[in-house]
């Protein structure tokens, strides 16, 4: 039996106030939002995801945030990889 790869840390709303988590680059946040806008679980009026309940303009800024679907429609990234293609963290 193989050991599963570590899952990304779950993003919480208050993580926006913890500076050590940083923010994704603007283009990545825009790309994440475009995916959400095309998703049937996205509520355009409130900009919330019905799967996680999050306010997506905020959640998509967090590097360790990830779409809750399985498989996710967009992935967490490692902040240390910014400028190096922002590699995705696979769950
Ligand atoms: S986070 Fe995932 S499930 Fe939620 S709206 Fe965005 S793409 Fe859809």
List the helices and strands and how they pair.
Elements: H1 26-37, E1 42-43, E2 48-49, H2 56-59, E3 76-77, E4 88-89
Antiparallel strand pairs: 1-2, 3-4
Iron/sulfur cluster binds at residues 35-36, 39, 41-42, 49, 51-52, 67-69, 73.
Task: Give an overview of the whole structure.
The chain has 91 residues and is α+β, with helices and mostly antiparallel strands. The protein has a domain at 23-77. Helices cover 18% and strands 9% of the residues. The chain contains 2 helices and 4 strands, in the order αββαββ. The protein has helices at residues 26-37, 56-59, and strands at residues 42-43, 48-49, 76-77, 88-89. It has a two-stranded antiparallel sheet with strand order 1-2. The longest helix has 12 residues, at 26-37. It is globular and about 30 Å long. The model has no long low-confidence stretch (mean pLDDT 85). The structure holds iron/sulfur cluster. Residues 35-36, 39, 41-42, 49, 51-52, 67-69, 73 line the site of iron/sulfur cluster. Iron/sulfur cluster binds at residues 35-36, 39, 41-42, 49, 51-52, 67-69, 73.
Bound molecules: iron/sulfur cluster
Structural class: alpha+beta
How is the largest sheet built, in terms of strand order?
A: 1-2
**Low-confidence regions:** none
Distance between the termini: 17 Å
Count of helix runs? 2
- Helical fraction equals 10-25%
Taken as a percent bin, the fraction of beta residues is 5-15%
Please provide the ordered H/E string of secondary-structure elements: HEEHEE
* Rg over CA atoms: 13 Å
Structure keywords:
single chain, alpha+beta, two-stranded antiparallel ribbon, 4 strands, binds iron/sulfur cluster
């Amino acid at each position: 039996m193989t050991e599963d790869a570590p899952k990304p840390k779950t993003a919480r709303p208050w993580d926006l106030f913890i500076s050590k988590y940083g923010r994704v680059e603007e283009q990545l946040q825009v790309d994440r939002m475009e995916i959400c806008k095309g998703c049937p679980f996205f509520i355009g009026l409130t900009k919330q995801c019905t799967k996680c309940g999050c306010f997506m303009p905020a959640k998509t800024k967090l590097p360790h945030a990830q779409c809750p679907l399985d498989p996710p429609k967009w992935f967490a990234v490692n902040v240390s990889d910014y400028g190096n293609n922002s590699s995705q963290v696979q769950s």
